Amino acid sequence: MCGATEGGLSLDGVNTKIEAIVQGQVTKSGEPVSTGYVRLLDRTGEFTAEVPVSATGHFRFFAGDGEWTLRTLVPGADPVDRKVEAATGSIAEVDIAV
Length: 98
Description:
Pfam families: DUF1416. This is DUF1416 domain-containing protein. This protein is mostly beta strands. It has a single domain, classed as Immunoglobulin-like, CATH 2.60.40.1120. The chain has strands at 20-28, 31-32, 37-41, 47-52, 58-63, 66-73, 80-86, 90-97. The strands form 2 sheets. Strands 1, 2, 5 and 8 form a 4-stranded mixed β-sheet that branches. A 4-stranded antiparallel β-sheet has the order 4-3-6-7, with no helix packed on it. The radius of gyration is 13 Å and the shape is globular. Mean pLDDT is 88; it is low at 1-6.
């Protein structure tokens, strides 16, 4: 049994009331990917941050309020862009299929 909470990553120790959280899981053919990256781009398309996906395909960013683009890069798949809205005090949960 893994330590992640149902539906995603554990939020233990994270004050969700003061954070704008963007998180989710990357899958390919219905299965979690274990190799790849998710980039966070601002509303103008400028690179802001990048994280590797976990062994279960999960990722998380602490972003500022506003509109962001998640660019997912996985070997053997075309890049996938997804728009997401981040807001302080909320968790934007994004599932990305490549």
